Amino acid sequence: MNQFQTPAKMQTLTDAEVCLIAERVADAHTRHQVIPLLTEEFPAMTVADAYNVQNALRRSWVARGNRLIGWKIGLTSKAKMLQMKVYEPAIGFLTHDMSRPENATILTAELIHPRVECEVAFVTNKTLRGPDCTREDVLAATDFVLPAVEIIDSRFAAYKFDLPSVIADNSSSARFVAGGRARYAQDLDLRTLGVVMEINGEIVATGAAAAVLDHPAEAIARLVNILHTQGEELASGSFVMSGGITEAIAVKVGDHVVARFQELGSVSMRFI
Ligand code: OOG
Ligand code: MG
């Protein structure tokens, strides 16, 4: 390894292995069934390998007609890191078929063990590129922000994973609902923005958006810089989620979820 090769850049999987793992993950998504941790079979798998798998998954889904509409970054708050015992942010891609409208019914049978989390979402109006993207760059390229609930679902048993496995599983992406009220970021203090999550009328989590890397725009900058390591940029017009503010909460059939965001209105959904 020379000084320009960080361990994160190291790749241990062949192209054939990357394709094989991407197919295995895609199959777990389609069948809503868990698979063993990918690092059990490929213990040397690195973060770079895992993003190669995620990219293969994205290319195959886009080739079959799923439109890429944006990206998400997760494991950006201490609550989420402690909950998952993974202490490094991870990104994933978002396609149009993962989106559900405000007040949607979510089909629980299409998921394995879904959890919900409140996030600040950004919609961009300029291209953002790494490697040195900053919070200020993100705010300058933000058209508006809006509240979102991400419905995550791990394809690994007991909702337990390590960093390479979760990245290869598209960072647990499954569904998301954006709604509420879109606002210009400059009209808000995004650090002190409060959120209250209720399930069936009971408060299950509360937080402020500064929990996400001190400022949710910081998380988007981090996402752009991770994209750069994949040779990608964040296109203008992208929908981007900055990561769960509080820990994620498990949901089941019959649950009615309402996330109330200060200044941004609320987002709700029902699991059937
Ligand atoms: C990984 C995805 C994390 C977030 O917002 O922190 C995530 C997981 O916890 O399953 O989306
Ligand atoms: Mg999330």
Quick overview of this protein structure:
The protein has helices at residues 15-31, 38-41, 47-63, 78-84, 135-140, 163-168, 216-229, and strands at 68-74, 90-95, 99-100, 104-106, 115-124, 142-152, 175-178, 194-199, 202-208, 239-241, 249-250, 256-261, 265-271.
Please tell me about this protein's structure.
With 272 residues, the chain is an alpha+beta fold. The strands form 2 sheets. Strands 1, 2, 3, 5, 6, 7, 10 and 11 form an 8-stranded mixed beta sheet that branches. It is built from 7 helices and 13 strands. It has one domain: Fumarylacetoacetate hydrolase, domain 2 (Alpha-Beta Complex). It is globular. The N terminus is likely disordered. It starts with 14 loop residues before the first helix and ends with a strand. The protein binds 2-oxoadipic acid and magnesium ion. The site of 2-oxoadipic acid has 17 residues, from strand 1, helix 4, strand 5 and strand 6.
How are the secondary structure elements laid out?
Blueprint (H helix, E strand, L loop, with lengths): L14 H17 L6 H4 L5 H17 L4 E7 L3 H7 L5 E6 L3 E2 L3 E3 L8 E10 L10 H6 L1 E11 L10 H6 L6 E4 L15 E6 L2 E7 L7 H14 L9 E3 L7 E2 L5 E6 L3 E7 L1
Parallel strand pairs: 1-10, 3-7, 4-13
Antiparallel strand pairs: 1-2, 5-6, 5-10, 5-11, 6-7, 8-9, 8-12, 12-13
Bound molecules: 2-oxoadipic acid (OOG) and magnesium ion.
